[in-house]
Amino acid sequence: MGNAVSRAPSIISSGVVKVLFPNGNMQIYTKPVKAEDLMLENPGQFVCDSSSLKVGCRIHGVTADEVLERRHLYFLLPLELLYSVLTHEERNCLTCKATKALKHASFNNFGKIFPVFTEFCIFPF
Questions:
Q1: Which of 75, 68, 98 is nearest to 19 (CA)?
Q2: Among 37-51, 72-86, 109-123, which is the least confidently predicted range?
Q3: 45: exposed, middle or buried (C-beta count within 10 Å: 0-12, 13-18, 19+)?
Q4: In this structure, how many other beta carbons lie within 10 angstroms of the beta carbon of residue 17?
Q5: What are the contacts of 24-27 at 24+ separation with CB within 8 A?
Q6: DSSP E strand stretches across 31-112
Q7: How far is the C-alpha of 8 from the C-alpha of 6, rounded, in Å?
Q8: For the segment 79-109, what is each residue's pLDDT rounded down to a tens digit?
Q9: Mode of pairing for the β-strands spanning 72-78 and 45-49
Q10: The dihedral of CA 25, 52, 13, 10: what is its sign?
Q11: CB–CB of 47/38 below 8 Å?
């Protein structure tokens, strides 16, 4: 009874922010996070929205005070790449890292649901 509101459904329905680090690890944020928070924790790197990356175009970072949008994938990239022109090789490398991290994240969730199968499944990462 009463007007209690559950927060869990809003977290699930509103999505998460995914950030791929240079080492290939993916961090998932369920709460709002600013780009500056990530850049302060990782000096010498900037945050880039994956949807803004296009081969032959300059790589732009998000502004430090920008709150990262849910349901987006962001890359944490070295400052040397800021405003450089994205090459096919760099795009392929980023795509490969993102694919591996996303597969690994979904495989970990699968393992939590079906722990017996994770011992026998071998996926090339």
A1: 75
A2: 109-123
A3: buried
A4: 20
A5: 24/97, 24/100, 24/101, 25/101, 26/101, 26/102, 26/104, 26/105
A6: 45-49, 72-78
A7: 6
A8: 999 999 999 999 999 999 999 988 877 645 4
A9: antiparallel
A10: positive
A11: yes
